[in-house]
Amino acid sequence: MIKLNYKEKHIKKHPTTRTGIKLLRVQAVVNHWTANYGASAENHFKYFNETLPNQNDDLPEDDKRYASAHIFVDKHKALELVPLNEVCFGANDGGTARLKLQTLRATDSSYPEGNANLLCIHVEMCVEPDGTIHPDTIARTALVHQYLQRNFKQLRETKNRFVRHFDVTGKNCPAPMVSNPNLWKELLELTDSKVVIPPNKPAVIEAKEENTDSSKTNWVRSKVDDLRYYSKPSWEDKDVAGHLPKGYGFPQAVRKVRVDNAWQYEVKNSEGETYYLTASEEFVSVEHKPATSTAQKPAKPRKSGPIAIGEIKIVNVSAAAIIQDRPDRNKSKNLGTIQKGRTIQVTGSVKGENSDSGYWEVIYDGDLAYITGKFGKYSAY
Ligand SMILES: [Zn+2]
Protein backbone atom coordinates (compact mmCIF):
# COMPACT_ATOMS: atom_id res chain seq x y z
CA MET A 1 0.00 0.00 0.00
CA ILE A 2 1.31 3.42 -0.94
CA LYS A 3 1.36 6.18 1.67
CA LEU A 4 1.00 9.86 0.86
CA ASN A 5 4.21 10.74 2.75
CA TYR A 6 3.69 14.47 2.18
CA LYS A 7 6.42 16.83 3.37
CA GLU A 8 6.71 20.60 3.23
CA LYS A 9 10.18 21.77 2.30
CA HIS A 10 9.85 25.25 0.86
CA ILE A 11 12.42 26.74 -1.46
CA LYS A 12 13.77 30.21 -0.77
CA LYS A 13 12.09 33.16 -2.43
CA HIS A 14 13.60 34.21 -5.73
CA PRO A 15 12.14 36.23 -8.62
CA THR A 16 12.59 33.33 -11.07
CA THR A 17 11.24 30.47 -8.94
CA ARG A 18 9.18 31.66 -5.97
CA THR A 19 8.01 35.25 -6.14
CA GLY A 20 5.62 35.03 -3.20
CA ILE A 21 2.80 36.46 -5.34
CA LYS A 22 -0.47 34.99 -4.06
CA LEU A 23 -2.79 32.86 -6.16
CA LEU A 24 -6.04 34.65 -7.00
CA ARG A 25 -7.84 31.44 -6.05
CA VAL A 26 -7.30 27.72 -6.50
CA GLN A 27 -9.32 26.77 -9.54
CA ALA A 28 -7.45 23.82 -10.99
CA VAL A 29 -4.53 21.47 -10.52
CA VAL A 30 -2.11 21.11 -13.41
CA ASN A 31 -0.23 17.82 -13.70
CA HIS A 32 3.26 17.63 -15.17
CA TRP A 33 6.16 15.29 -15.49
CA THR A 34 9.59 16.70 -14.76
CA ALA A 35 11.18 15.24 -17.93
CA ASN A 36 14.36 14.99 -15.81
CA TYR A 37 15.25 11.35 -16.10
CA GLY A 38 16.38 9.93 -12.76
CA ALA A 39 15.87 13.10 -10.68
CA SER A 40 13.95 12.65 -7.40
CA ALA A 41 11.74 15.11 -5.54
CA GLU A 42 14.71 15.98 -3.29
CA ASN A 43 16.86 16.60 -6.37
CA HIS A 44 14.26 19.08 -7.56
CA PHE A 45 14.26 20.84 -4.20
CA LYS A 46 17.98 21.40 -4.63
CA TYR A 47 17.53 22.51 -8.23
CA PHE A 48 14.84 25.09 -7.47
CA ASN A 49 16.32 26.21 -4.15
CA GLU A 50 19.91 26.67 -5.33
CA THR A 51 20.91 25.60 -8.81
CA LEU A 52 18.38 27.52 -10.89
CA PRO A 53 18.40 30.74 -8.82
CA ASN A 54 22.22 30.77 -8.95
CA GLN A 55 22.25 30.18 -12.69
CA ASN A 56 19.67 32.90 -13.25
CA ASP A 57 21.54 35.43 -11.12
CA ASP A 58 24.39 35.27 -13.63
CA LEU A 59 22.20 35.64 -16.72
CA PRO A 60 20.81 38.72 -18.47
CA GLU A 61 17.06 39.21 -17.94
CA ASP A 62 16.06 37.80 -21.32
CA ASP A 63 17.96 34.56 -20.78
CA LYS A 64 16.66 33.78 -17.32
CA ARG A 65 14.55 30.68 -16.92
CA TYR A 66 11.39 31.15 -14.88
CA ALA A 67 10.20 27.83 -13.55
CA SER A 68 8.73 26.17 -10.49
CA ALA A 69 5.94 23.92 -9.28
CA HIS A 70 4.25 23.42 -5.95
CA ILE A 71 4.53 19.68 -5.36
CA PHE A 72 7.05 17.12 -6.61
CA VAL A 73 6.05 13.49 -6.36
CA ASP A 74 8.39 10.54 -6.65
CA LYS A 75 8.11 6.87 -5.73
CA HIS A 76 8.99 7.59 -2.08
CA LYS A 77 7.40 10.91 -1.13
CA ALA A 78 5.56 14.06 -2.09
CA LEU A 79 7.51 17.25 -1.47
CA GLU A 80 5.81 20.64 -1.30
CA LEU A 81 8.38 23.15 -2.58
CA VAL A 82 6.12 26.18 -2.72
CA PRO A 83 3.21 27.03 -0.37
CA LEU A 84 -0.09 26.19 -2.01
CA ASN A 85 -1.37 29.78 -1.86
CA GLU A 86 1.51 31.16 -3.94
CA VAL A 87 1.96 31.42 -7.71
CA CYS A 88 4.38 29.06 -9.46
CA PHE A 89 5.80 29.35 -12.97
CA GLY A 90 4.30 26.17 -14.30
CA ALA A 91 2.11 26.61 -17.36
CA ASN A 92 2.45 29.92 -19.08
CA ASP A 93 4.69 28.73 -21.92
CA GLY A 94 3.79 30.72 -24.97
CA GLY A 95 1.73 33.13 -22.87
CA THR A 96 -1.94 33.63 -23.50
CA ALA A 97 -1.62 32.76 -27.19
CA ARG A 98 -1.10 29.12 -26.25
CA LEU A 99 -3.78 29.02 -23.58
CA LYS A 100 -6.30 26.36 -24.55
CA LEU A 101 -8.41 26.44 -21.42
CA GLN A 102 -9.97 29.88 -21.47
CA THR A 103 -11.45 29.34 -18.00
CA LEU A 104 -7.90 29.64 -16.70
CA ARG A 105 -7.24 33.04 -18.28
CA ALA A 106 -6.80 35.08 -15.11
CA THR A 107 -5.34 38.55 -14.98
CA ASP A 108 -3.97 40.79 -12.28
CA SER A 109 -1.58 43.72 -12.17
CA SER A 110 1.45 41.43 -12.44
CA TYR A 111 -0.05 39.57 -15.40
CA PRO A 112 -2.30 41.97 -17.29
CA GLU A 113 -2.33 39.63 -20.30
CA GLY A 114 -3.71 36.74 -18.31
CA ASN A 115 -1.93 33.75 -16.93
CA ALA A 116 -3.19 30.32 -15.90
CA ASN A 117 -0.58 30.18 -13.15
CA LEU A 118 -2.62 32.65 -11.11
CA LEU A 119 -5.28 29.97 -10.62
CA CYS A 120 -3.39 26.70 -10.52
CA ILE A 121 -1.54 24.38 -8.22
CA HIS A 122 1.18 22.54 -10.15
CA VAL A 123 1.99 18.90 -9.41
CA GLU A 124 5.10 17.36 -10.96
CA MET A 125 5.61 13.63 -11.36
CA CYS A 126 9.27 12.64 -11.18
CA VAL A 127 10.71 10.38 -13.87
CA GLU A 128 12.74 7.20 -13.52
CA PRO A 129 16.18 6.88 -15.16
CA ASP A 130 14.58 4.96 -18.05
CA GLY A 131 12.11 7.76 -18.78
CA THR A 132 9.04 6.07 -17.30
CA ILE A 133 6.80 7.23 -14.46
CA HIS A 134 6.94 4.64 -11.68
CA PRO A 135 3.61 3.02 -10.67
CA ASP A 136 4.21 4.17 -7.07
CA THR A 137 4.70 7.74 -8.30
CA ILE A 138 1.40 7.55 -10.18
CA ALA A 139 -0.40 6.14 -7.13
CA ARG A 140 1.16 8.78 -4.86
CA THR A 141 0.08 11.50 -7.31
CA ALA A 142 -3.50 10.24 -6.94
CA LEU A 143 -3.06 10.49 -3.14
CA VAL A 144 -1.75 14.05 -3.56
CA HIS A 145 -4.87 14.83 -5.59
CA GLN A 146 -7.02 13.46 -2.78
CA TYR A 147 -5.04 15.51 -0.25
CA LEU A 148 -5.70 18.63 -2.34
CA GLN A 149 -9.38 17.72 -2.59
CA ARG A 150 -9.57 17.51 1.19
CA ASN A 151 -8.01 20.95 1.52
CA PHE A 152 -9.76 22.68 -1.36
CA LYS A 153 -13.40 21.68 -1.64
CA GLN A 154 -13.71 23.23 -5.08
CA LEU A 155 -11.34 20.56 -6.43
CA ARG A 156 -13.64 17.67 -5.60
CA GLU A 157 -15.02 17.36 -9.09
CA THR A 158 -11.94 15.53 -10.33
CA LYS A 159 -12.77 15.49 -14.04
CA ASN A 160 -13.14 19.25 -14.31
CA ARG A 161 -10.49 20.37 -11.86
CA PHE A 162 -7.47 18.24 -12.70
CA VAL A 163 -5.83 18.89 -16.04
CA ARG A 164 -2.60 18.07 -17.82
CA HIS A 165 -0.14 20.79 -18.73
CA PHE A 166 -0.97 19.65 -22.27
CA ASP A 167 -4.63 20.65 -21.76
CA VAL A 168 -3.62 24.14 -20.66
CA THR A 169 -1.09 25.16 -23.31
CA GLY A 170 -0.59 22.17 -25.59
CA LYS A 171 2.86 21.35 -24.22
CA ASN A 172 3.80 17.68 -24.46
CA CYS A 173 3.56 17.23 -20.69
CA PRO A 174 3.27 14.82 -18.94
CA ALA A 175 4.50 13.13 -22.11
CA PRO A 176 3.47 9.52 -21.32
CA MET A 177 -0.05 10.76 -20.53
CA VAL A 178 -0.21 12.80 -23.71
CA SER A 179 0.91 9.96 -25.96
CA ASN A 180 -1.51 7.67 -24.18
CA PRO A 181 -4.55 9.54 -22.82
CA ASN A 182 -5.73 6.31 -21.15
CA LEU A 183 -2.88 6.62 -18.67
CA TRP A 184 -4.21 10.06 -17.76
CA LYS A 185 -7.74 8.68 -17.46
CA GLU A 186 -6.39 5.98 -15.15
CA LEU A 187 -4.76 8.57 -12.92
CA LEU A 188 -8.06 10.43 -12.61
CA GLU A 189 -9.86 7.18 -11.85
CA LEU A 190 -7.28 6.42 -9.20
CA THR A 191 -7.89 9.90 -7.75
CA ASP A 192 -11.55 8.97 -7.37
CA SER A 193 -10.79 5.54 -5.85
CA LYS A 194 -11.22 4.87 -2.15
CA VAL A 195 -8.26 2.52 -2.19
CA VAL A 196 -5.34 3.66 -4.30
CA ILE A 197 -3.43 0.72 -5.70
CA PRO A 198 -0.42 1.45 -7.94
CA PRO A 199 -0.99 0.52 -11.58
CA ASN A 200 0.74 -2.71 -12.59
CA LYS A 201 2.86 -0.96 -15.21
CA PRO A 202 4.87 2.27 -15.29
CA ALA A 203 3.69 5.05 -17.58
CA VAL A 204 5.71 4.91 -20.78
CA ILE A 205 5.84 7.29 -23.71
CA GLU A 206 4.38 5.55 -26.70
CA ALA A 207 6.14 6.04 -29.97
CA LYS A 208 4.06 8.66 -31.70
CA GLU A 209 3.11 7.78 -35.20
CA GLU A 210 1.46 10.33 -37.35
CA ASN A 211 -1.55 9.51 -39.42
CA THR A 212 -0.68 8.61 -42.92
CA ASP A 213 -1.62 11.03 -45.63
CA SER A 214 -5.00 10.05 -47.00
CA SER A 215 -3.64 10.23 -50.55
CA LYS A 216 -1.46 7.23 -49.79
CA THR A 217 -2.48 3.64 -49.50
CA ASN A 218 -0.78 1.17 -47.21
CA TRP A 219 -2.21 -2.29 -47.62
CA VAL A 220 -1.80 -4.50 -44.58
CA ARG A 221 -2.08 -8.15 -45.57
CA SER A 222 -2.14 -11.31 -43.56
CA LYS A 223 0.70 -13.76 -44.11
CA VAL A 224 -1.20 -16.55 -42.39
CA ASP A 225 -4.64 -18.11 -42.47
CA ASP A 226 -7.27 -17.15 -39.93
CA LEU A 227 -5.56 -14.04 -38.60
CA ARG A 228 -7.69 -12.35 -35.97
CA TYR A 229 -8.62 -8.71 -36.26
CA TYR A 230 -10.25 -6.67 -33.55
CA SER A 231 -12.94 -4.01 -33.19
CA LYS A 232 -10.71 -1.99 -30.84
CA PRO A 233 -7.06 -1.92 -29.71
CA SER A 234 -7.08 -5.18 -27.80
CA TRP A 235 -5.88 -8.79 -27.84
CA GLU A 236 -9.00 -10.11 -26.12
CA ASP A 237 -11.20 -12.82 -27.57
CA LYS A 238 -14.31 -10.74 -26.94
CA ASP A 239 -13.03 -7.94 -29.17
CA VAL A 240 -12.33 -10.16 -32.18
CA ALA A 241 -14.24 -8.74 -35.14
CA GLY A 242 -13.27 -11.39 -37.66
CA HIS A 243 -10.55 -13.51 -39.25
CA LEU A 244 -8.45 -12.89 -42.37
CA PRO A 245 -7.48 -15.62 -44.80
CA LYS A 246 -3.86 -15.61 -45.94
CA GLY A 247 -3.22 -12.86 -48.51
CA TYR A 248 -6.26 -10.83 -47.50
CA GLY A 249 -6.04 -7.55 -45.69
CA PHE A 250 -7.06 -3.95 -45.29
CA PRO A 251 -6.33 -1.22 -47.83
CA GLN A 252 -5.30 1.45 -45.37
CA ALA A 253 -2.96 1.35 -42.41
CA VAL A 254 -3.78 4.46 -40.44
CA ARG A 255 -1.16 4.22 -37.72
CA LYS A 256 0.46 1.88 -35.30
CA VAL A 257 -0.73 1.70 -31.73
CA ARG A 258 0.78 0.11 -28.69
CA VAL A 259 -1.48 -2.49 -27.07
CA ASP A 260 -0.02 -3.84 -23.85
CA ASN A 261 3.49 -4.80 -24.84
CA ALA A 262 3.03 -5.22 -28.56
CA TRP A 263 1.98 -3.21 -31.56
CA GLN A 264 -1.18 -3.24 -33.63
CA TYR A 265 -2.01 -1.54 -36.88
CA GLU A 266 -5.07 0.61 -36.85
CA VAL A 267 -6.54 -0.06 -40.29
CA LYS A 268 -9.54 0.93 -42.33
CA ASN A 269 -11.47 -1.32 -44.67
CA SER A 270 -12.85 -0.14 -47.99
CA GLU A 271 -15.96 1.17 -46.21
CA GLY A 272 -13.82 3.33 -43.96
CA GLU A 273 -14.51 1.20 -40.88
CA THR A 274 -11.70 0.99 -38.35
CA TYR A 275 -10.19 -2.27 -37.08
CA TYR A 276 -7.01 -3.40 -35.35
CA LEU A 277 -4.64 -6.26 -36.01
CA THR A 278 -1.18 -7.35 -35.05
CA ALA A 279 1.69 -5.33 -36.49
CA SER A 280 4.10 -8.24 -36.14
CA GLU A 281 6.12 -8.91 -39.30
CA GLU A 282 5.61 -12.57 -38.61
CA PHE A 283 1.90 -12.29 -39.35
CA VAL A 284 1.37 -9.28 -41.60
CA SER A 285 3.08 -7.43 -44.40
CA VAL A 286 2.64 -3.82 -45.39
CA GLU A 287 2.68 -2.61 -48.96
CA HIS A 288 3.33 1.02 -49.39
CA LYS A 289 2.07 2.90 -52.43
CA PRO A 290 2.98 6.58 -52.47
CA ALA A 291 0.64 8.99 -54.20
CA THR A 292 1.62 9.31 -57.84
CA SER A 293 1.83 13.08 -57.80
CA THR A 294 3.97 13.49 -54.71
CA ALA A 295 6.67 16.02 -55.46
CA GLN A 296 9.07 14.69 -52.88
CA LYS A 297 9.09 10.97 -52.94
CA PRO A 298 11.00 9.37 -50.14
CA ALA A 299 13.92 7.24 -51.24
CA LYS A 300 12.65 3.70 -51.69
CA PRO A 301 14.57 0.62 -50.76
CA ARG A 302 15.47 -1.72 -53.62
CA LYS A 303 12.46 -3.63 -54.91
CA SER A 304 13.43 -7.07 -53.76
CA GLY A 305 14.28 -5.94 -50.26
CA PRO A 306 12.11 -5.12 -47.27
CA ILE A 307 9.47 -2.43 -47.69
CA ALA A 308 9.75 0.74 -45.67
CA ILE A 309 6.62 2.16 -44.03
CA GLY A 310 8.39 5.24 -42.77
CA GLU A 311 11.59 6.45 -41.27
CA ILE A 312 12.98 7.25 -37.87
CA LYS A 313 15.18 10.10 -36.82
CA ILE A 314 17.79 9.16 -34.23
CA VAL A 315 17.06 10.91 -30.93
CA ASN A 316 17.71 10.48 -27.18
CA VAL A 317 21.33 9.39 -27.64
CA SER A 318 24.46 11.38 -26.90
CA ALA A 319 26.21 10.64 -30.19
CA ALA A 320 24.98 7.63 -32.11
CA ALA A 321 22.68 4.64 -31.87
CA ILE A 322 23.85 1.10 -32.37
CA ILE A 323 22.42 -0.93 -35.24
CA GLN A 324 21.87 -4.52 -34.14
CA ASP A 325 21.43 -7.71 -36.13
CA ARG A 326 18.55 -8.88 -33.92
CA PRO A 327 16.06 -7.29 -31.53
CA ASP A 328 17.86 -8.28 -28.35
CA ARG A 329 20.50 -5.94 -27.02
CA ASN A 330 22.09 -8.69 -24.94
CA LYS A 331 22.57 -11.20 -27.74
CA SER A 332 22.88 -9.07 -30.86
CA LYS A 333 25.91 -8.35 -32.99
CA ASN A 334 26.58 -4.67 -33.69
CA LEU A 335 26.32 -4.06 -37.42
CA GLY A 336 27.23 -0.39 -37.22
CA THR A 337 26.09 2.90 -35.76
CA ILE A 338 23.96 5.81 -36.90
CA GLN A 339 24.59 9.38 -35.79
CA LYS A 340 22.05 11.34 -33.75
CA GLY A 341 19.84 13.43 -36.06
CA ARG A 342 20.26 11.08 -39.06
CA THR A 343 17.29 9.18 -40.46
CA ILE A 344 16.92 5.56 -41.46
CA GLN A 345 14.06 3.70 -43.09
CA VAL A 346 11.92 1.40 -40.99
CA THR A 347 9.68 -1.50 -41.89
CA GLY A 348 7.99 -1.62 -38.51
CA SER A 349 8.73 -2.31 -34.91
CA VAL A 350 9.02 -5.40 -32.75
CA LYS A 351 8.94 -6.07 -29.06
CA GLY A 352 12.15 -8.12 -29.05
CA GLU A 353 14.02 -8.80 -25.83
CA ASN A 354 15.58 -6.64 -23.13
CA SER A 355 14.22 -3.27 -24.24
CA ASP A 356 11.27 -1.56 -22.57
CA SER A 357 10.80 0.53 -25.67
CA GLY A 358 11.02 -2.39 -28.10
CA TYR A 359 13.01 -2.11 -31.32
CA TRP A 360 12.61 -0.43 -34.64
CA GLU A 361 13.08 -2.77 -37.53
CA VAL A 362 15.21 -0.76 -39.94
CA ILE A 363 16.66 -1.27 -43.37
CA TYR A 364 20.42 -1.26 -43.16
CA ASP A 365 22.50 -2.18 -46.18
CA GLY A 366 19.36 -3.57 -47.80
CA ASP A 367 18.69 -5.97 -44.95
CA LEU A 368 16.64 -5.87 -41.80
CA ALA A 369 18.38 -4.65 -38.67
CA TYR A 370 17.25 -3.26 -35.31
CA ILE A 371 17.56 -0.07 -33.28
CA THR A 372 16.30 0.38 -29.70
CA GLY A 373 12.81 1.91 -29.74
CA LYS A 374 13.46 5.00 -27.66
CA PHE A 375 16.28 6.08 -29.96
CA GLY A 376 13.97 6.65 -32.93
CA LYS A 377 11.35 9.29 -33.66
CA TYR A 378 9.00 7.93 -36.30
CA SER A 379 7.47 9.59 -39.33
CA ALA A 380 5.20 7.63 -41.60
CA TYR A 381 5.65 7.78 -45.37
ZN1 LIG B 1 4.59 20.61 -17.61
What letter string, H or E per element, gives the SSE order? Answer: EEHEEEHHEHHHEEEEEEEEEEEEEEE
Counting DSSP E segments of at least 2 residues, the number of strands comes to: 21
Q: Which strands sit side by side, in order, in the main sheet? A: 1-4-3-5-2-6
Largest sheet geometry: 6 strands, mixed
Query: Which radius of gyration do the C-alpha atoms yield?
Result: 24 Å
- Bound small molecules, deduplicated: zinc ion
GO molecular function: N-acetylmuramoyl-L-alanine amidase activity
Keywords: Cell wall biogenesis/degradation, Hydrolase
Catalytic activity: Hydrolyzes the link between N-acetylmuramoyl residues and L-amino acid residues in certain cell-wall glycopeptides
Enzyme class: hydrolase
